[in-house]
Please model this.
Amino acid sequence: MAEVARIDKWLWATRVFKTRSLAADACKNGRVTINGINVKPSHTIKAGETVSVKKSPITYSFKVLKCIEQRVGAKLLPEIYENVTDAKQYELLEMSRISGFIDRSRGTGRPTKKDRRALDSFADPVMFGFEDEDDD
Model:
């Protein structure tokens, strides 16, 4: 087992990204940091470092336990890294799934009638405490 590994290969091998080229692109575009510093795809990592990956809408954080460059099965991942992502990030992810409109992708067109109704039911006035005032 190697003591160091390239960050793009490690991200691919640990199944954070589907392909190595996607991992390399994320590094080039500043979406991957190690201990708070932006890195290039060729940067080497060691055990004990913290890798942060921005995947819209949240930032995942992983503590490196082993350095690998060959893809492994999903069952072996707990031996490779520890997920130290903040719980608030997962709440943000859940909110974006519920609403569907927080980070609408450019070029997807305008919302359909079904989308608008889902947004209206999500932003129901009762939810914000604006119930009918004529109950008196």
About this structure: The chain has a mean pLDDT of 81. The helical segments are 7-13, 20-28, 77-80, 87-99, 113-122. The longest strand covers residues 58-64. Strands lie at 4-6, 32-34, 37-38, 44-46, 50-55, 58-64, 81-83.
